[in-house]
Amino acid sequence: MSTITSDQEALRDQVRTGYAEIATHGSERRKSSCCCGMSEVDADALAKHIGYTDAELAALPGGANIGLSCGNPGAIAALKPGEVLLDLGSGAGFDAFIAAPKVGPTGRVIGVDMTAEMLAKARKNIAAFRQRTGLDNVEFRLGEIEHLPIADATVDVIISNCVINLSPDKPQVWREIARVLKPGGRVAVSDLALLKPLPGPVVEMVEALVGCIAGAALTSETERMAREAGLTDIRLLPKKGYVAAMTDWQDPLYQKIISHLPKGSGPEDYITSLEVTAVKPGKKCGCG
């Protein structure tokens, strides 16, 4: 059972407030307090760097890509036509809209986000997506990833992009992932994780929390939480290119982090983009 303390709830409120401002003000907000991505003008450059194609980006509704990714979970999910996909922390709909053509008209994509402003932005994009693709297979629901508004064993695949690290109760998120997956269903997550604990001053920076860093778990903890939730075939692949790019591009948040690190060390010594894949045990039903 989830047991959120008052301090953890306060942190969640900070995250919700930060992402609401990003949804409302876009790059203007992130220039002063960056999130997982760069300023809005560089959102496509970041997406291409972490593996999204020109064709995928060109097909998106305007405003869906607001530069919040740290990986490409859809690429490692091996999506198939007819599957039901759940996107945890779907934001403005970036990964959901990219996944929808891959599951096709017989499939379904459900995005869940706890920020009403992000949800409104995503829902506003549905009409443009439908007109551009002819597909009507995407929906967005308001909810917390610790308490998903999804029935048991109804989802074929779960993706998430730089979101689970923001949760104050990550073990509960992994339990929810296992609950809503069908037997044989799978999860593909791109997230920020820690190679070793961050220095105290970095953890205390609110910008680092909203920027998906201060709340990140150690890679070993991520594996343990997924295993204890009942998932199997757990694979973790660190991808250092994202953190190196954010440092090279002089992202404002990463520049602040560098100023708080011990001399001679850099963000890539502590932080990595992590691909996590896992499966819920059981034989997958062929009934769709």
- Give the SSE string: HHHHHEHEHEEHEHHHEHHE
How many distinct domains?
1
Globally, the shape reads globular
What does the radius of gyration come to?
A: 18 Å
N/C terminus separation: 30 Å
List low-confidence stretches: 27-41
Word description of this protein:
With 288 residues, the chain is of the alpha/beta class. It has a single domain (6-279), classed as Rossmann fold. It contains 13 helices and seven strands. The chain has a seven-stranded mixed beta sheet with strand order 3-2-1-4-5-7-6, with helices on both faces. Helix 1 packs across helix 7 (116-133). The protein is globular, with a radius of gyration of 18 Å. The relative contact order is 0.15.
Entry summary:
The protein has helices spanning about 5-25, 25-30, 45-50, 55-60, 75, 95-105, 115-135, 170-180, 200-205, 205-210, 220-230, 240-250, 250-260; strands spanning about 85-90, 110-115, 140, 155-160, 180-195, 230-240, 270-280. By secondary structure, it is of the alpha/beta class. The two termini are about 30 Å apart.
Which helices and strands, and how do they pair?
Layout: H1 6-25, H2 27-30, H3 43-49, H4 54-58, H5 73-76, E1 84-88, H6 94-103, E2 108-113, H7 116-133, E3 138-142, E4 155-161, H8 170-180, E5 181-194, H9 200-203, H10 206-210, H11 219-228, E6 232-239, H12 241-248, H13 252-259, E7 271-279
Parallel strand pairs: 1-2, 1-4, 2-3, 4-5
Antiparallel strand pairs: 5-7, 6-7
